[in-house]
């Protein structure tokens, strides 16, 4: 995800698939074939917008063609359904949906007494619990003052806010249309608060897995003699969230949270310290119910795999970090993956270590001298562009493995050169993992000055969505068996999923508008055999949602967002009481440089850039 100090907007891709018969009807029609099930779904590719009026709105002109096993077909044009906006008061919620709260669940106001409303909805989980439907949605981050206006500034106000998630009760009509029944913010005070929840996923046991992309709370070198946490995040947690009544600990963040919802709408939240700590974009559990992969967003990141001790229980297990052994530098590169074991533990013991830990209790650290480290220290570059000479203090190996997972991985010889690792998706039939690398740059290029230089690729600013084949019977680098049948063994890029940088065209695109640029949210639909991809790109004037059929290799543009907006919150629900839905939000509409196109600037001036919406793509028949 990108963080920009500008006027932001979220406008969810509140899309619905309304049907038509024979390509003639415009009325909603979700009638299915009465004699046959769905064989395949194909999406037409809509053209990229070129007119200012289209560039300044979210819309779709794509058509989903459903083929049934009896040979009949039916066309379903895409259209929009808005559930609610972040400024709306819905479902009995006394405050705006995007309102942020302190640890006592009191609304946070700015110094002028105005409510602080997050304008960046992200991950969605539409869940059926018993006979009820619930939607969990992330409120990712907040940059500006409460009303989203640049008209006033307040000295020493906070650049970031403690964040939250929403729990919305959903009513489903007989025609499949969704509406809000109830809504409340989720209370994270029992797990020390929530910091930058980015993308998320759904577990095989019907819970929501969130994230904490906590750049602000990662430790960074201040000078040659010491280390300290970035102060902005701790200041906001201490003074805004905890009201100066408690003290925040950075080691309580960068942890994967799991939200369980009961049929009566009550919920429980746990943070899985056993899954390791990083700047998590998201975590995705594999179909075995115990193997999970995490996307570590940033520069000099790593690829982490967690294997739970028991399926359906993420509270205890083992974490491994990937070692990239490159076999080709062409077309996004190819590599074999091996796995370095970092440690085994459970939530309770790692949480206790986190409560007591500081950077100084985990490591001895010195700065390199002319690129070299003293005897007994390892030179690493992990999560930062600066090299560090580190050694783990005696008896602190487990704490370092789980609380400084990226640095510990580098010390143990794993690769910490991935950039902008975002969404994770799984294709179970082919036993294939998909990994979004938003940009191939910086630490993924060939740089002999890096401590190790495992990844040596040509720069592709538009990034790529990588594939990885998963197998069982694998061993870690020490020769010990890995207790999983879903171990990624390689990485490569299918041709259609590699971005293409270009010289700026007349509209201002610096990546080919007919290919994916800066892949971010991804979600694979098993029954549609389709990988959905949402862009977070400054290289496309309009960001798109794409549908890539892994069998036909057809890449289709299925939605265009307002100029500058980022597409977020992808989730595919293939059969919810006889209907299919694709959840999809977007953020910071109008986030582009003014002056490029006067007509687009004029069109953008007519929209409320902070009326962020959450919605869905729906109307398709259930994909069975």
UniProtKB/TrEMBL annotation:
Keywords of the record: Signal
Pfam families for this protein: PhoX
Keyword Signal among record annotations: yes
Signal peptide start and end residues: 1-18
InterPro entries: PhoX (IPR008557)
This protein's name: DUF839 domain-containing protein
Species assigned in the record: Thiothrix lacustris
């Amino acid at each position: 995800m990108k963080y920009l100090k500008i006027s932001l907007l979220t406008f969810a891709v509140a899309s619905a698939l309304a049907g038509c018969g024979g390509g003639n009807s415009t009325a909603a029609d979700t009638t299915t074939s009465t004699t046959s099930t769905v064989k395949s779904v194909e999406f037409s590719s809509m053209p990229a917008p070129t007119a200012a009026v289209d560039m300044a709105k979210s819309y779709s002109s794509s058509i989903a063609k459903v083929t049934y096993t009896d040979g009949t077909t039916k066309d379903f044009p895409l259209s929009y359904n808005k559930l609610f906006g972040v400024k709306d008061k819905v479902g009995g919620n006394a405050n705006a949906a995007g309102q942020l709260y302190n640890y006592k669940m009191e609304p946070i106001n700015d110094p002028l007494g105005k409510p602080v409303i997050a304008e960046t909805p992200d991950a969605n989980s539409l869940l059926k619990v018993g006979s009820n439907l619930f939607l969990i949605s992330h409120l990712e981050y907040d940059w500006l003052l409460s009303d989203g206006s640049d008209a006033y500034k307040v000295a020493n106000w906070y650049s970031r806010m403690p964040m939250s998630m929403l729990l919305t009760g959903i009513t489903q009509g007989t025609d499949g249309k969704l509406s809000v029944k109830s809504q409340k913010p989720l209370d994270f005070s029992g797990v020390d608060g929530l910091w930058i929840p980015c993308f998320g996923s759904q577990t095989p046991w019907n819970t929501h897995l969130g994230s904490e992309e906590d750049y602000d709370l990662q430790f960074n070198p201040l000078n040659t003699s010491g280390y300290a946490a970035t102060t902005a995040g701790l200041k906001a947690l201490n003074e805004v969230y905890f009201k100066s009544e408690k003290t925040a600990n950075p080691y309580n963040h960068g942890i994967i949270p799991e939200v369980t919802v009961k049929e009566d709408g009550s919920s429980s939240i746990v943070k899985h310290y056993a899954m390791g700590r990083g700047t998590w974009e998201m975590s995705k559990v594999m179909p075995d119910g115990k193997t999970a992969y995490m996307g570590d967003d940033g520069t000099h990141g790593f690829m982490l795999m967690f294997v739970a001790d028991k399926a359906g229980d993420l509270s205890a297990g083992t974490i491994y970090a990937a070692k990239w052994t490159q076999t080709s530098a062409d077309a996004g590169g190819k590599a074999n993956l091996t796995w370095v074991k970092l440690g085994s533990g459970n939530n309770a013991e790692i949480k206790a270590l986190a409560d007591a830990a500081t950077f100084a209790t985990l490591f001895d650290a010195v700065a390199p001298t002319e690129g070299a480290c003293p005897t007994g220290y390892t030179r690493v570059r992990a999560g930062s562009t600066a090299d560090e000479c580190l050694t783990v203090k005696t008896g602190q190996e487990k704490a370092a493995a789980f609380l400084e997972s990226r640095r510990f991985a580098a010390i143990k010889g794993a690769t910490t050169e991935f950039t902008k690792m975002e969404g994770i998706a799984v294709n179970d039939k082919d036993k294939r993992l998909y990994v979004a690398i938003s940009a191939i740059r910086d630490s993924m290029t060939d740089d002999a000055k890096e401590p190790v230089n495992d990844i040596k690729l040509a720069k592709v600013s538009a990034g790529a969505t990588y594939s990885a084949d998963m197998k069982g019977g694998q061993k870690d680098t020490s020769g010990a068996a890995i207790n999983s049948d879903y171990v990624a063994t390689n990485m490569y890029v299918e041709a259609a999923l590699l971005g293409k940088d270009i010289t700026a065209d007349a509209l201002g695109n610096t990546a080919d508008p007919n290919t994916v640029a800066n892949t971010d949210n991804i979600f694979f639909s098993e029954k549609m055999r389709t990988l959905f991809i949402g862009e977070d790109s400054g290289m496309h004037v309009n960001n798109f949602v794409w549908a890539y059929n892994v069998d036909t290799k057809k890449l289709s543009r299925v939605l265009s967002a307002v100029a500058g907006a980022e597409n977020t919150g992808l989730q595919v629900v293939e059969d919810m009481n006889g209907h299919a839905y694709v959840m999809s939000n977007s953020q910071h509409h109008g986030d582009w440089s003014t002056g490029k196109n006067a007509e687009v600037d004029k069109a953008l001036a007519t929209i409320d850039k902070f009326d962020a919406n959450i919605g869905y793509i729906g109307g398709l028949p259930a994909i069975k």
